[in-house]
Every structure is written in C-alpha cells, then in structure tokens.
Amino acid sequence: MIIVLLGPPGAGKGTQCELLARERRLARVSTGELLREAAARHTALGELARPYVERGELVPDEVMIGVIREWLTENAHAERAIFDGFPRTITQAEALDGVLADLGRQVDHAVYLRVPTEELIRRLSGRYVCPRCGATYHLATSPPRVPGRCDICGASLTQRPDDRIEVIRHRLEVYLTQTMPVVDYYRRKGILIEVDGARPIETVFADIQAALPPVESN
Ligand code: AMP
C-alpha cells in the first residue's frame, strides 16, 4: 500500500504522517525533512536545495524525482509506505506513477488535508522546532514549558528559515499554483480522500483512519 499525503504548508502533514506510519506500520518519507537533513550535513543535495527551501520555492522536479527514485530503490522491501510532501507538481505525480509502475506498484490513496489560509499562517508563524530531536511547538497552542527550550531534550528551539512571514506567503502561493493541481490529479483517478484539517489532531487522524481500509486488510 502506498499513501501520499497532500495539503498546504502547515496543514499538519508531518504530524498525521507520523501517526499513520506508527499506527499502520508504514515506511515514512518526508521530502522536506530529507532536504533539511541534507542541508544540515552539507551534502551536495543539501547545498543544491538550500536556496530554494529558504526562498519558499520548490526544488526542481528532476532533483526531487531522483530523490524519490533512490528512496524507492533503497526501500524496495517496504511494501507499505507513506509520502509526506511528495508529489508537489503534476510532473512529480506523473513521474511517481512511472517509477511505481516499473516496480509493479501504484499510489493507492491520496489523503488531502484542507485548511483555510488564515489558519495556516497562524500555525506556521508560531511554529518552533527543536533542531536536536525534531519536536515541534507552537507559541500559542503548545508552548514549551521553559520558553525557548525543548521539553524533551533541552536544546534551544529555532524557527525554520522558511517559517518567516514573507516566506510563508510565498510558499502558500507556490502551493496554490503548483501543488493544488496535484489534488485534482488524484481526484480524477478516484483515489482522493479529502479531510478537514482545521480540527484537533486526533479528530483529523480519526477521519483519515476511517476513510482508509481497515488496518488488518491493507
Ligand atoms: P516541507 O517540510 O514539506 O514544508 O518542505 C520544505 C521545503 O522543501 C519546501 O518549501 C520546498 O522548498 C522543499 N520541498 C520539499 N518537498 C518538495 C518537493 N516534493 N518538490 C520540491 N520541493 C520540495
């Protein structure tokens, strides 16, 4: 089973992806996370991607398709997988279908988290992350116990460079023009599951779980 998770930045893809991966024992790939790790390690991919990520632009399709092809080859044993942040363009969606078809596989479900723009801006502009353990916080809704410090490992919290307000606005524009068509791509294929993502994490998760086939049979 292959699931792709779609939605604007700040829709909660990372959170729902983690919950789904844990509950359904899915291998998880987040292209945004992969790029941030590559940038932190100063690999060739990281250096190439950094300027795009920092400006809120999409990394070129051929680069991202290469990343996913490599991941699928290295994880050929992973029968169940969930993708967070890929595909983000029609070209990527078509390439993913091609790579999967070569492996005798296909995208089975596309989960789309719908969230209004004002809510996305509120979520992203208050988001702080722990650079050491990856925990995320929100200044208004889930602040750390000690301001500026991670509850789990004590590291100093940081804001993602692309969570600055001017970059957030640009990421949302890029999403509308380049990624929204991907939602329609899966809708036309009849495999789109549309969920209201503006509700509490557990409610959204329960809705997604109810729309997917029961865990025993996937
Ligand atoms: P995310 O963590 O999913 O919000 O991704 C952060 C940034 O990584 C995006 O704003 C893009 O610059 C880049 N990125 C992640 N996934 C992709 C993708 N599939 N195609 C192009 N760029 C991507």
What attributes characterize this protein structure?
about 220 residues, 7 strands, two-stranded antiparallel sheet, binds adenosine monophosphate, alpha/beta
How are the SSEs placed, and which strands pair?
Blueprint: E1 2-6, H1 13-24, E2 27-30, H2 31-40, H3 44-55, H4 61-74, E3 81-84, H5 90-102, E4 109-114, H6 117-125, E5 127-129, E6 136-138, H7 165-189, E7 192-196, H8 201-211
Parallel strand pairs: 1-3, 1-4, 2-3, 4-7
Antiparallel strand pairs: 5-6
Helix pairs in contact: 1-8, 2-3, 4-5, 6-7
The chain binds adenosine monophosphate.
Adenosine monophosphate binds at residues 9, 31-32, 35, 52-53, 56-59, 64, 85-86, 88, 92, 162, 171.
What's the quick description here?
The chain is α/β, with parallel strands linked by helices. It is built from 8 helices and 7 strands; from the N terminus they run E-H-E-H-H-H-E-H-E-H-E-E-H-E-H.
Sheet-strand content, in percent, reads 5-15%
What percent of the residues sit in helical stretches (DSSP H or I)? 40-55%
Q: What coarse outline follows from CA principal-axis ratios?
A: globular
- What CATH architecture do you see? 3-Layer(aba) Sandwich
H/E series: EHEHHHEHEHEEHEH
What compounds sit in this structure?
Answer: adenosine monophosphate
The class by helix and strand makeup works out as alpha/beta
Question: How many extended strands?
Answer: 7
CATH superfamily: P-loop containing nucleotide triphosphate hydrolases
- Oligomer status: single chain
Count of helical stretches:
8
Q: How many structural domains in the coordinates?
A: 1
Distance between the termini: 7 Å
Cα gyration radius (Å): 17 Å
Poorly predicted residue ranges: none
Placed side by side, the strands forming the largest sheet appear as 2-3-1-4-7
Mean pLDDT: 94
